[in-house]
């Protein structure tokens, strides 16, 4: 269900207004009516991400032998480390970060799943999709150009173990951290899943919610076919 949140258009003016009212000392929004903040319960209800289970931790240290062997082992293909992407001027791999553009381009060019596709290949591309979804949407780089190499190790292997991690807690921590960073003078961007902040505002401060949510949806037809979608998608 997580990918359906990508259909929501972000209201940058609303998020900017909220960031200006965030106080890092208390981790709350200072509003005329008083102080409010996003809670773990809010995240659980809006997104249905698990808030219990194993903590999300990992190492961003370059693995022994470099990132190349890890990518080859986990994703099943070699990634060039020096060739710029379509004249964009940056390589597919840089300081432990994987280029979003390279990953998407590579998958679109090579993925062709059908009934005869080996299960191993299906799982491999499912891993790549999951890495893009988590690393590029839930915990995005501020430039939306890079995915942290940490997800290569964390989102491959045991599928059951991935689902038992406390993703909601990690996302909330990321939102708090980004709000503290972007509330400072001179800040221009914010990463992490800021769509949660927008949904939270619409729910708790309904005077800022759109009367007609359709302009904020990129694909109404697909959303209408969902069975029991998360509250935030509704």
UniProtKB/TrEMBL annotation:
A Gene Ontology BP annotation from the UniProt entry: meristem maintenance
Boundaries of every Aminotransferase-like plant mobile domain copy: 6-211
Record-linked Pfam families: PMD
InterPro entries: AminoTfrase-like_pln_mobile, MAIN-like
Annotated protein name in UniProt: Aminotransferase-like plant mobile domain-containing protein
Lineage of origin: Eukaryota, Viridiplantae, Streptophyta, Embryophyta, Tracheophyta
């Amino acid at each position: 269900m997580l990918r359906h949140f990508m259909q929501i258009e972000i209201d940058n003016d609303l998020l900017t207004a909220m960031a200006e009212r965030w106080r890092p000392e208390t981790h709350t929004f200072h509003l005329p009516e008083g102080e409010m903040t996003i809670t773990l319960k809010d995240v659980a209800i809006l997104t249905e991400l698990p808030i219990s289970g194993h903590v999300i931790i990992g190492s961003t240290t370059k693995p022994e032998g470099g990132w190349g062997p890890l990518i080859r082992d986990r994703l099943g293909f070699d990634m060039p480390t020096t060739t710029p992407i379509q004249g964009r001027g940056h390589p597919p791999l840089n300081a432990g970060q994987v280029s979003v553009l390279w990953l998407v381009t590579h998958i679109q060019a090579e993925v062709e799943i059908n009934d005869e596709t080996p299960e191993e290949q299906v799982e491999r591309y499912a891993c790549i999709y999951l890495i893009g979804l988590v690393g590029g949407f839930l915990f995005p780089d501020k430039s939306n150009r890079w995915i942290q190499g940490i997800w290569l190790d964390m989102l491959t292997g045991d599928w059951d173990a991935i689902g038992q991690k406390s993703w909601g807690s990690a996302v909330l921590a990321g939102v708090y951290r980004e709000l503290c960073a972007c509330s400072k003078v001179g800040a221009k961007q914010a990463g992490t899943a800021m769509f949660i902040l927008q949904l939270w505002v619409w729910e708790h401060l309904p005077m800022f919610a759109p009367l007609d949510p359709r302009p904020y949806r990129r694909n109404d037809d697909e959303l209408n076919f969902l069975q029991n979608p998360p509250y935030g998608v509704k």
